[in-house]
Amino acid sequence: MDVADSIDTKNITELILKLCDVLSKHNPAISERLSHNALMCLSCTSTVTTNSLNQEEYIVNCIRHLLSSQSKDKLDRFEILYSKLKGSTILKKRDLTLCFLYHLSQRLGKHPGHPSESVLHCSTKDSGQILTRTSSIALSNTQSQESVKHIFDSRDKRKSHHSTLHSNTHKITSQTTTASSASWSKADIPSSSRISCLNVVTEQELLQDVVFSFQGIEGKFLRREPGGLGFAVDAKAGKLLTPSQRALLERLIGISFLHNELKRFCEENEKQRGTIGQALIATLTDELSAYYKTVAILQASANKPPGQENSDMTLKKALYVMHEHQTRFEWLAYIAEQCRDKKGGALTTAIHGFLQHGSKCAQEISERVLKAVCKPLYVMLSRWLLDGEINDPYNEFFIEVKTVSTAERLWHDKYHVRQHMVPSFIKMSQAKKILATGKSINFLRQICKDSGHLPGRESLQKLFKTTLADGLFAPEQSIEFHATLESVYKETSLRVLELLKNKYRLLEHLQSLRRYLLLGQGDFIRHLLDLLTPELNKPAGQIYIHTLTAILESAIRVTNAQYEDEDTLKRLAVFFMSHSSGDTGWDVFGLVYIVDGPVGTIFQQTLSTYQSLFGALWRAKRTEFALANMRRQQITMSKLFKNIEELRPVMHLIHILTSKMIHFLNQTQYYFLFEVLECSWAEMQNQVNKAECLDDIITAHTCFLTSVQRGVLLDEDSRQLFSHLISIYNFVMNLEGHQGALYQAALEEHEARRAYAAHRDAADDFGTDNHLQKVNLERKATFRQFLGTTKLKVKTSAQTYDEIVKKFLGLLSKSMNMNLRLLCVRLTFNNFYTTA
Amino acid sequence: MNEKTSSAKDAKETFQCLMELSTLLGADLDPEVLSICVRLCEAGVNPELLVTVLKDILKEVQVVRQEE
Q1: Cα distance between residue A101 and residue B48, in whole Å
Q2: What percent of chain A has pLDDT over 70?
Q3: Taking every annotated instance into account, which residue ranges of this chain make up the domain Gamma tubulin complex component protein N-terminal (chain A) (predicted)?
Q4: Of A17, A330, A400, A462, whose Cβ has the fewest other Cβ atoms within 10 Å?
Q5: Residues of B in contact with A18 (CB under 8 A)
């Protein structure tokens, strides 16, 4: 026997002594006798070793059987107690204890009538009956009488020594020794039962309420806040709660509030939102169902009857279990709040903002939401970039479609970027490129009827297949996405340009416009003016378009324009503006160049500009032409009428004025045609050659037109200048009229004089015909008078002309435009017109 | 410290259970007696023998009382 066993034996002995002491009401005499007998009987049992599990099962079954024969309630109660015992770590030999209790009850129940059976008097048959399974022990019981006696004797010997110790150990045991024995002492029992009486509200009840509130259902302690979304602890029922319970509840109902909030958001927005909104709702619903799953698990563990394993769910545990959901819900609710009343791109922008958040959790959640939300956007984007189609019934995409009246307006008006729908992860320049790419596809398909294969689609298709929606915003993937976008944009644009330049002869059209509408083809314009002058001098009402068309054609046939392309010539036509009374042909005549088809996209909207430009240039040209004619006539006149002395002063005046005008017009024409037109043209050609997309060409062309408009004083700022210019032109035409009248009068005079001289020479009366002489003199007088008035008119008009030119120059010199100031210098290079 | 109190609580609970069990089975034992008995069981005493001994002691005590 080793040391441990001997100690055990000693323990048992002591315990038995104590037992006897207690039972004998501390009567030492009886106690000693009893213990002597008891020890004899029991001391050997320390060697009991049986299969504890089997025995336990056996005993439990016996007890069950016993109790079920009595009442069902008792059986149930036993089950509860037994499960509690199972969970206890204090009892190491549960089987033995149970066996003890069972046999105790057996004895009391089975033999209540004859309790006088004495085992101590060695009733071997009885012990043999009961202790069938421990017969060996029973046998050893009798066999080892000697050894028991020995133990007892030895104990007796040490009795004096022990009795002193006994009281000590007793004290120590009752005070501390092990926690278990202390708690089993009598004093503790009432206090523990008192606690359970006071604690009216159990964790189970609260837990049930909390689980309800997690699902938005009111319970016994948790009531819905009136008018709010959250829950509050019921005032009445809450009185029973301890402060810690209340605090826990209040922490837990925060989750319920968030749940209700999210649920309401989902319900409210379920119907009215577009696809992107739906994606948001779906993500939220996913989160909610994950949450419900957790709640269900919580519910299951809360519902488990006490005593089973894992049933110890408490409020604190629930708080821990729900913590993750709570933080997620907090962010989700925040995101949802930000997304309220937003849709499409604006919604993605709102969520994208959270991606920059410092909190890992917020980042993770917003990324998840953003991924889901971007999916529909991604699909839309892929359709737009690949096929140029927009399937956007809820106006969520950042490109919108409008209906356009004509095909030419498709490029300009049909598609637009919706500024507020552009997600923040797509830059405005990128959005414009996306717009241009899809627009180009539509342009090619609808306007150019080009159904050919588009370049660069494979890479894009591959990209859309391989990457997910997060390619739009995730920094790494978005680089690839944007690079592909860029290349696709470039290739598509190039394809459009190529088609326009080669198939639709864009450059040739530009050239023709320049030549015919902006008077680039000099010989043709000159000839046309020549031919048109008689016709256009007529009142506007008497001119017919077919005669003009015939004149145009003859002008084309005669000049270099005949070598022009057939197609170009067909497009050239005469244009008639609506006229009012008093207008001459000059006021309503115009040339047009008809452009249609895809290139019309560029030119259609600029046709009115071309017309006004043509009007201004045509007018200048006509004035220049008129001046040239006047100069020619003056030379003829000076030769023809050299013997009409009276004509000279007038002619001198006219001559000077014409010279001034010619100088003026030469300078302005030079400025218009070379400095403005040629320079702008060169600039535009440069731009067009560099152009990467159709928009570049359109911009270059518009720039060209505006700069020409500004150059020929047709823009808003130079309205005053232009009106002066027009009045200068009018002076020229006026002077032409005067000169024409003068020419007519001088011619008549000249004829009359020649006739008079011839008559006089032929009559041989030496000019003595008084009547004729008188007539001659009268005519001369009228002629002189006419000359006098004409001279006066020319003089005054010369004066006003000078004034107007001075004003014009004054305006020019004050102009902001450097070129105009230079023009001013050129016009008065020798300070002929001294400006104030 | 914590462990100790928890084990004390556990012990208390266990004892309560045992108390209830003994009442349930109709053995009206004094808590102190039960405590000692359970400790005897824990120490490995044969429960059936213990029951017998207990019965005998009770009977003896009764007899002594009557004599007195």
Answers
A1: 9
A2: 82
A3: 207-503
A4: A462
A5: 36
Q: Say if B59 is an interface residue toward chain A (CB within 8 Å).
A: yes
Range of the domain at B8: 2-67
pLDDT single digits (tens) A535-554? 888 888 888 888 888 998 99
Tell me if chain B has a CB within 8 Å of the CB of A196: no
pLDDT digits (tens, 9 = 90+) for A457-467: 777 777 777 77
What is the rounded CA–CA span in Å between residue A789 and residue A795? 10
Would an 8 Å CB–CB cutoff place A142 in contact with chain B? Answer: no
How many beta-carbon pairs under 8 angstroms link A with B?
Answer: 213
Using CA atoms, how far apart are residues A316 and A298, in angstroms rounded to an integer? 12
**One-letter amino acid of A532:** L
Average pLDDT over residues A766-783: 81
Q: Give the torsion sign (CA, A484, A490, A496, A498).
A: negative
Cβ <8 Å between A119 and B52 = yes
pLDDT number for residue A630:
92
List the single residue in B with minimal CA-CA distance to A133: B48
Query: Residue type for B10, please?
Result: D
**In the prediction, which pLDDT does A827 show?**
87
Q: Is the pLDDT of residue B50 over 50?
A: yes
b/e map of A710-744 (b: 16 or more CB within 10 Å)?
bbbbbbeebeebbebbebbbebbebbbebbeebbe
Q: What does CATH list as the number for A600-827?
A: 1.20.120
Q: Does the ipTM surpass 0.90?
A: no
Nearest to A34 among B8, B51, B57 (CB): B57
Q: Tell the burial category of A103 from Cβ atoms under 10 Å away from its Cβ (0-12, 13-18, 19+).
A: buried
Of B25, B27, B41, the CB nearest to A96: B41
Q: Do B51 and A116 touch (CB under 8 A)?
A: no
Q: What are the angstrom distances between the C-alpha of B49 and each of A134, A193, A558, B45?
A: 10, 33, 146, 8
The answer to whether residue A34 neighbours chain B at the CB level (below 8 Å) is yes
For residue A81, which residues of chain B lie inside 8 Å, CB to CB? 17, 20-21, 24
Average pLDDT over residues A282-301: 88
Contact A380, A392 (CB under 8 A): yes
Do the beta carbons of residue A665 and residue A624 sit within 8 Å? yes
The token pair that represents A226 in the structure block: 């009136």
Q: Tell whether the torsion through CA atoms of A540, A545, A550 and A555 is positive or negative.
A: positive
Q: Please report the pLDDT score of residue A479 as a whole number.
A: 81
Shortest distance, CA B35 to any CA of chain A (angstroms) = 7
Residue ranges per domain, chain A? 3-109+119-187, 202-341, 360-503, 600-827
Nearest CB to B27 within list A99, A105, A118 = A105
Task: Give the span between the Cα atoms of A657 and A745, in whole angstroms.
Answer: 20
Which residues have C-beta within 8 Å of that of residue A16, sequence separation ≥ 6?
A35, A38, A39, A42, B40, B53
Q: What is the pLDDT of residue A193?
A: 39
Q: Helices then strands (H, E): number in chain A? A: 33, 6
| Statement: residue A765 has pLDDT above 70 | no
Is residue A259 within 8 Å of A288, Cβ to Cβ? Answer: yes
Our CA dihedral for A510, A511, A512, A518, rounded to 10 degrees, sits at 90
